[in-house]
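SAMPLE LOG
Freezer: B-3
Tube label: C17
Construct: single chain, 319 aa
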Amino acid sequence: MTDQTVQNDQTARPDRPQPYARPEPVVSPFNVPVVEEFRANGGRVGGMFEGGDLLLLTTTGARSGREYTNPLAYLRIDDRLLVVASAGGSSRDPDWYRNLLAHPMVVVELGSERFEAVAVPTEDTERDRLFEEIVRREPGFGDYESRSGRRLPVVELQPAAPESAGEVTNLAEKLFEVHGWLRGQLDRVRDEAEAYLAEHAGTGDPVGLNLQIRQHCLAFCESLHFHHSGEDGVFPNLVQGYPHLREPVERLIAEHRVVDRIRGELERLLDDLATADPDRFRAELDRMSRELNAHLDFEEESLIPVLSQIPFPPPIPAE
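STRUCTURE (predicted):
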């Protein structure tokens, strides 16, 4: 199995996603028939891929912001969904791997199922253990590594669906769902950072941070930015329909800017994991937790009575 990739546009840098006219993900000409057959047959494909375990991975371009879809071989080990950045034995990491390092939130299509995931490259002895088992099951990956001259990354795709108590029927329930996911992800990053720093305390080794912390923190930051950008676009319409919400909405928008500055600082601290200041990172996480939780609490208190009256998903207008 080769993981053919698309050469991503490295020049375009849109200021922000355009949700109203988002183009379809790019698929390389080589992969178009594979992707079409996959989707038409619930994940089953023939030809050179027949009988193989295949998924579709959609990533966001590291610089372009465009989405790209690639078919990849996958394995399940210890109930973990794994892909290998083999690029068919190329000496260069595939574009989809560089994309997910920049944007850990990805979309996975597995059989007839489609879900969001956080892409987390495994590290050190854990990566070696998993790769040894991968080669035992699929020896071709060992050949790819020997041919490539690099240590092939092994990436875990962790489902990122927010927990839901049941079917979401209105915007209030949707807001609680999104807020719950954001709170949970932030708590997870804080717990991972504390565990990592405790493990390295007193060892005398350089500490920095690790890829797991980075990927989960970037996934949180990216999701938070997307959520607040969406709200900044929706809130003016909400105020038009419910004028009594003008004051709380103005406060919420101002708080978005405060939270966004902290988000930017967290992302800057993750630019170089080897030299990242763990104490400063931990302090920024604490600051984010205080500001964001207070913001989310106020938003729920202010908007839930109105949002509970608005159906979700919104009805489709009759033509």
